[in-house]
Design brief:
- The protein has 142 residues and is of the alpha+beta class.
- Helix content is 20%, strand content 32%.
- It is built from 2 helices and 6 strands; from the N terminus they run E-E-E-E-H-E-E-H.
- Strands 4-3-2-1-5-6 form a 6-stranded antiparallel beta sheet, with no helix packed on it.
- The longest helix is centred in the C-terminal third of the chain and has 18 residues.
Amino acid sequence: MENGDTLEIKVNHSACLFLSHEIYTFVKQKDTVFLQTYSEISSFEKREQTLPKKVYNIKNKSHLSFENYFKYLTKENKPETETKSPLVVIYYKNKAQSKSFYDDGLKDKFEKLDRFGLLRQEIYPHDLFFKAPEPPPPDFTQ
């Protein structure tokens, strides 16, 4: 990335009745890469959050980096079909370029999203937006 560049990454978490996506926006300013993330769950009741802009300082050599995740997706990418939505889309806004990555069914999708979840947790270790709520305790009074 060069100063002034914007890179947007859309991750589609949707499966079955669960509808969700995230948009990661990287902006390079004064030789520093900043990241801002928007998350949305729109199944059942709509929830959304925008995390504050932060410095993206994960090194390319780290196994938990976007760069290495894209290498993994490139290796594991599946063919595009008319009926499939991409799992991940990278938009290089300044150059009007994009790259899409696809899955091959639920098992493949969940494997790729599980790996992405590790990366997300590395970047946002305290964010609980996608954490499933605990089930209520059993009621033994009945």
